Amino acid sequence: MVCPLILQKPLDLVDYVVAHELSHLIEMNHSKAFWQTVGSVYPGYAAARKKLRGVG
């Protein structure tokens, strides 16, 4: 289930969350292979992840 609050975020962050969650269909963990999968779908994921977490 998608948190309704994510729909209030900028579209680039929504795209990151979608890429993250869909990547779990391939890798059901947060291993190096998982992040490579996320990166193959959403190349700028690191910046989006920091922004979402309030770091960047």
Determine the number of helices (DSSP H or I, runs of at least 4 residues). 3
For the sheet with most strands, the description reads: none
Helix content: 55-70%
**Overall 3D form:** globular
Strand fraction = under 5%
Total strand segments:
0
Oligomer category? single chain
Radius of gyration (CA) equals 11 Å
Short description:
With 56 residues, this protein is mainly α.
Can you put this structure into words, describing what you see?
The structure is a single chain. With 56 residues, this protein is an all-alpha fold. Helices cover 57% and strands 0% of the residues. It has 3 helices and no strands. The chain has helices at 11-23, 32-41, 45-53. Helix 1 crosses helix 2 (32-41). The chain is globular and about 30 Å long.
Write the layout of secondary structure elements.
Layout: H1 11-23, H2 32-41, H3 45-53
Helix pairs in contact: 1-2
Comma- or semicolon-separated keywords:
3 helices; single chain; 56 residues
